[in-house]
């Protein structure tokens, strides 16, 4: 199912996308509570999807764990700038603060102190259970679902700082959405990124260096993963600059399209 977090009038709720009862369009079936934290039921209210505002599909209560250098073509792409073309033997982890999260159609804001802000389209994992020291075999059982993500990066600051916290962590630098798909076959999921309608990135999860069970198990050795925590699984080659006025889209097969303007 596709789960969304949405605003209708002044109320914020979770809901499940469903075909309209009259067969025309899509409706959102309102849920009680937070489906990542506990059980839930429907309230019985159904709203046309076009009448609600979709928000970031997780409440940014905890953390975003990210994986760097998880596609060989992106490792090669960045080697000319970093001088390191070696793929990491284990998932390379870093964090984004929860304050970086925004939802679909919210603007990515280029900070004045950076002259080179870039997009990085990614598949994101949303955790659904408290997870610590989980095995690769059990890792997927702790997942709630999957969504689209954009690991926006101030590339000039990443290259000069020597570590990635500031370059990856600005407010608005973690767009997520538009929904969480709870059932996704991870063997060969296509991902594409477009800027102003022009395709810049295309890849498949079949090309991961480290697959999702390994990433979750590795991350859980360091951090207790909480329900609603997000894991970004890495970007392929094709990353590039964003300018004010651009519109960037990240599309994940089976999930949907995440769109954000840039200012």
Automatic annotation (TrEMBL):
Residues 63-263 form the Fumarylacetoacetase-like C-terminal domain. Residues 1-57 form the Rv2993c-like N-terminal domain. Keywords: Hydrolase, Metal-binding. It comes from the Bacteria. One of its GO terms (molecular function) is metal ion binding. This is Fumarylacetoacetate hydrolase family protein. GO terms for biological process: carboxylic acid metabolic process. PANTHER family: ACYLPYRUVASE, ACYLPYRUVASE FAHD1, MITOCHONDRIAL. The lineage of its organism: Bacteria, Bacillati, Actinomycetota, Actinomycetes, Micrococcales. Gene3D superfamilies: FAH, Fumarylacetoacetase-like, C-terminal domain.
């Amino acid at each position: 199912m596709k789960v969304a977090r949405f605003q209708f009038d002044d109320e914020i709720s979770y809901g499940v996308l469903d075909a309209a009862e009259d067969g025309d369009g899509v409706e959102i079936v309102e849920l009680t509570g937070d489906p990542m934290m506990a059980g839930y039921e429907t309230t019985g209210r159904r709203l046309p999807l076009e009448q609600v505002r979709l928000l970031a599909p997780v409440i940014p209560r905890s953390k975003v764990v990210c994986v760097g250098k998880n596609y060989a073509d992106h490792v090669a792409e960045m080697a000319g700038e970093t001088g390191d073309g070696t793929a990491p033997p284990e998932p390379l982890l870093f964090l984004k603060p929860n304050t970086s999260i925004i939802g679909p159609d919210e603007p990515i804001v280029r900070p004045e102190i950076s002259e080179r802000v870039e997009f990085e389209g990614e598949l994101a994992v949303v955790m659904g259970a408290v997870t610590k020291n989980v095995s690769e075999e059990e890792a997927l059982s702790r997942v709630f679902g999957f969504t689209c993500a954009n690991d926006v990066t101030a590339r000039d600051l990443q290259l000069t700082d020597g570590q990635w916290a500031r370059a990856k962590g600005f407010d608005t630098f973690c767009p997520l959405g538009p929904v969480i798909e709870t059932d996704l076959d991870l063997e060969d999921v296509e991902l594409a990124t477009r800027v102003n309608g022009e395709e810049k990135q295309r890849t498949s999860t079949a090309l991961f260096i480290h697959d999702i069970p390994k990433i979750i198990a590795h991350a859980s050795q360091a951090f207790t993963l909480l329900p609603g925590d997000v894991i970004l699984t890495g970007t392929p080659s094709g990353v590039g600059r964003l300018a004010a006025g651009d519109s960037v889209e990240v599309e994940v097969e089976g999930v949907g399209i995440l769109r954000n303007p840039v200012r």
